[in-house]
């Protein structure tokens, strides 16, 4: 719902306040206070009402309430003297007195709309008040704060409608039927959880539930010390949000298949294209076709444009493009159009920036766009993965590994690409071969078996380690999945890194580090396409051999041990 008054627009779903089109900064509790006053504008709201609705029944000082009221007034260009919009009634409370217009916002494509009975026909979730399993009622404030923190974190996911706190908190203290709560709130998904405290330790358990059928989609638990309750709340909210976004995307794809009416909407076509893009490399042309269908339904659908551009990048990178110049031009065009439409959407910003960086745009500028995306949503796991990739492409940087580790912490179950690929690549070009090998072997498990990226790097890694038999075994698998073996690595800005990887591929092919390779004539439109040039490159002759089997459990242990031993991996980087 969008509430308009004067030149102000309060979007409850996106939790945004705008004035004349410009977003106005408002901290979460002040936002909730403004929304509560507007929704109860037919009466004077007492201090007790505010304590119950905004602070969850906790006792706070009058000065804390006054501070929030003043913050809201400043955001609305109001003050205690004029009281144009929020009037104070002495010893009674407050009342919003502005003229309000309520509306449901429906973009042209119709992909976001509300049904006749109020159900939200858009990805939507309600976070119900978490249950305290401790007998100590004094811990209730922590439990409510935990729920608030998660609502705020989820609200940063631009494509997801998050029900306002004051609506979901109406279920506090009630025995909840999740399917009934979903119907009453009009949402597809419900997040519920519990908090258990024992001594100085706290365990938070969470479950994501399909509100239509009551089935569990995802569950996890998080442990921490109660010494700093605010830090623990932030940590858990970050972990929940980072892990849930890929799970919600997967659930949305299933929902789309189950509710399709035959003619795909832009949103449904985008979901199916997105799923195919990360399933098998050979399905990327079909994924691109679906995403272009979404763009035909809605020419201004930024996420579809961004992932269509990503498909074009993958076709060129994997060597499966039939027309490298055409796919490169399309990828650049789609990514630039997506950026123009991105606004504050972290996903569109980050995915478009990655494609343009690959095709030769200024990598510093593209990295700055990804940093902006992460400021908008610090819990965007794929954004941290993309940040890691770009920093690895730009040259030596410990941030490449550190940002990949943040991505893994936020989304340990995958669904965002493979941060292990970035970790392995960074270790490899810095001649840390054991660490590189462990990470690259894990990357082959994260990614579809016909994605060539980790296998190219594995070949180079084994070759530089002097393990030529294993390099050649991996090389045979690589030849089966792509004609483009000796990839130019032109997206790497450091020429020394490019030459190092190419020499490893040549060494595996010929037994020497020299330039002698068999020419298959496979062409690739190199990343300098964004500046208007192309390059033909060589690939290696193919033979049929199997890939060497490896104990991946040992690989994971080796990588974790290496991470523990390296001081750079112990330090959590400052977020952009």
Short structural summary:
This protein has 576 residues and is of the alpha+beta class. The chain contains 22 helices and 17 strands. Among the domains are: 2-103, Winged helix-like DNA-binding domain superfamily/Winged helix DNA-binding domain (Arc Repressor Mutant, subunit A), CATH 1.10.10; 113-243, 3-Layer(aba) Sandwich (Rossmann fold); 260-375, Tetratricopeptide repeat domain (Serine Threonine Protein Phosphatase 5, Tetratricopeptide repeat, Alpha Horseshoe).
Proportion of residues in extended strands? 5-15%
Which CATH architecture of the domain at 113-243 would you pick? 3-Layer(aba) Sandwich
pLDDT average, as an integer?
A: 81
Helix content: 40-55%
Under CATH, the homologous superfamily of the domain at 113-243 reads: ABC-type transport auxiliary lipoprotein component
Total helical segments: 22
Shape: elongated
Low-confidence stretches: 104-119, 513-551, 563-575
Please name the CATH topology of the domain at 113-243.
Rossmann fold
| CATH structural class of the domain at 113-243 | Alpha Beta
Distance between the termini: 31 Å
Largest sheet: 6 strands, mixed
Please tally the β strands and state the result. 17
Rg value? 26 Å
SSE class: alpha+beta
Describe the structure.
By secondary structure, the protein is α+β, with helices and mostly antiparallel strands. Among the domains are: 2-103, Winged helix-like DNA-binding domain superfamily/Winged helix DNA-binding domain (Arc Repressor Mutant, subunit A); 113-243, ABC-type transport auxiliary lipoprotein component (Rossmann fold), CATH 3.40.50.10610; 260-375, Alpha Horseshoe (Serine Threonine Protein Phosphatase 5, Tetratricopeptide repeat), CATH 1.25.40.10. The protein contains 22 helices and 17 strands. The strands form five sheets. Strands 10, 11, 12, 13, 14 and 15 form a six-stranded mixed β-sheet that branches. A five-stranded antiparallel β-sheet has the order 4-3-2-1-7, covered by helices on one side. A hairpin with a 2-residue loop joins β3 and β4 (22-24). α1 crosses α3 (62-75). The longest helix is centred in the middle third of the chain and has 31 residues, at 229-259. Mean pLDDT is 81; it is low at 104-119, 513-551 and 563-575.
């Amino acid at each position: 719902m969008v509430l308009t008054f004067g030149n102000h627009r309060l979007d409850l779903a996106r939790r945004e306040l705008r004035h004349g089109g410009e977003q106005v900064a408002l901290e979460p509790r002040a936002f909730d206070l403004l929304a509560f006053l507007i929704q109860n504008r037919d009466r004077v709201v007492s201090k007790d009402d505010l304590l119950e609705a905004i602070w969850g029944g906790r006792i706070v000082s009058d000065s804390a309430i006054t501070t929030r009221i003043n913050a809201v007034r400043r955001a609305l260009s109001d003050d205690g003297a004029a009281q144009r919009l929020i009037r104070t009634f002495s010893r009674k409370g407050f009342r919003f007195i502005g003229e309000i217009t309520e509306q449901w916002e429906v973009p042209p494509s119709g992909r976001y709309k509300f049904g006749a009975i109020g159900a939200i026909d858009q990805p939507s979730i309600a976070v119900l008040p978490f249950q305290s399993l401790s007998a100590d009622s004094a811990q209730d404030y922590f439990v409510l704060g935990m729920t608030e923190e998660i609502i705020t974190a989820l609200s940063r996911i631009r494509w997801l409608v998050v029900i306002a706190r004051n609506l979901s908190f109406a279920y506090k203290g009630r025995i909840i039927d999740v399917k009934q709560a979903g119907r009453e709130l009009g949402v597809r998904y419900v997040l519920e959880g519990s908090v258990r405290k024992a001594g100085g330790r706290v365990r938070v358990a969470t479950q994501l539930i399909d509100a239509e059928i009551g089935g569990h989609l995802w569950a996890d638990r998080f442990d921490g010390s109660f010494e700093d309750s605010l830090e623990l709340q932030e940590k858990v909210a970050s972990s929940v949000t980072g892990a849930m976004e890929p799970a919600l995307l997967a659930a949305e794809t299933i929902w789309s298949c189950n509710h399709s009416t035959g003619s795909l909407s832009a949103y449904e076509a985008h979901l199916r294209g997105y799923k195919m893009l990360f399933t098998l490399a050979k399905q990327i042309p079909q994924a691109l076709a679906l995403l272009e269908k979404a763009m035909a339904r809605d020419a201004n659908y930024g996420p579809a444009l961004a992932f269509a551009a990503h498909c074009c990048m993958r076709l060129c990178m994997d060597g499966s493009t039939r027309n490298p110049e055409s796919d490169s031009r399309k990828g650049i065009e789609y990514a630039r159009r997506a950026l123009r439409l991105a606004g504050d959407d972290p996903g569109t910003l980050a995915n478009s920036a990655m494609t343009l960086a690959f095709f030769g745009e200024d990598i510093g500028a593209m990295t700055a766009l990804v940093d902006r995306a992460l400021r908008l949503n610090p819990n965007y796991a794929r954004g941290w993965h993309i940040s890691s990739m770009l920093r690895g492409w730009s040259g030596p940087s410990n941030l490449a590994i550190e940002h990949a580790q943040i991505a893994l912490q936020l989304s340990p179950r995958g669904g965002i690409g493979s941060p292990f690929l970035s970790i392995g690549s960074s270790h490899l070009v810095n001649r840390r071969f054991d660490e590189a090998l462990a990470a690259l072997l894990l990357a082959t498990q994260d990614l579809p078996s016909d994605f060539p990226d980790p296998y190219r790097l594995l070949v180079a890694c084994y070759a530089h380690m002097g393990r030529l038999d294993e390099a050649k075994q991996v090389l045979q698998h690589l030849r089966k999945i792509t004609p483009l073996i000796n990839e130019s690595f032109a997206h790497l800005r450091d020429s020394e890194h490019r030459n190092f990887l190419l020499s490893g591929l040549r060494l595996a092919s010929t037994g020497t580090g020299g330039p002698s390779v068999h020419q298959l004539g496979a062409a690739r439109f190199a990343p300098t396409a964004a500046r208007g040039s192309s390059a033909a490159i060589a690939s290696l002759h193919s033979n049929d051999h199997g890939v060497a089997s490896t104990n991946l459990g040992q690989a994971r242990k080796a990588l974790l041990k290496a991470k523990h031993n390296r001081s750079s991996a112990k330090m959590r980087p400052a977020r952009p």
